């Protein structure tokens, strides 16, 4: 069975540069075959990780 690498990315939301950097990182990882779940795509305010 083949396993796809995956990761959840959580980061500081204190400025727009962080948001852009994480989006760029997540996009590069996805293009390289990693299943990425950045919190900005998956969680909403008050949501949990489960």
From TrEMBL:
This chain's protein is named Sefir domain-containing protein
Q: Which PROSITE patterns match?
A: SEFIR
What Pfam families has UniProt attached to this entry? TIR_2
Q: Matching InterPro entries, A to Z? A: SEFIR_dom (IPR013568), TIR_dom (IPR000157), Toll_tir_struct_dom_sf (IPR035897)
Membrane-traversing stretches: none
The highest taxon in the source lineage is Bacteria
An example GO BP is:
signal transduction
List residues of the SEFIR domain: 4-50
């Amino acid at each position: 069975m083949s396993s796809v690498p995956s990761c959840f990315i959580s980061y500081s939301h204190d400025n727009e540069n962080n948001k852009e950097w994480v989006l760029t990182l997540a996009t590069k990882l996805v293009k390289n075959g990693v299943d990425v779940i950045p919190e900005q795509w998956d969680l909403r305010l008050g949501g949990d990780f489960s």
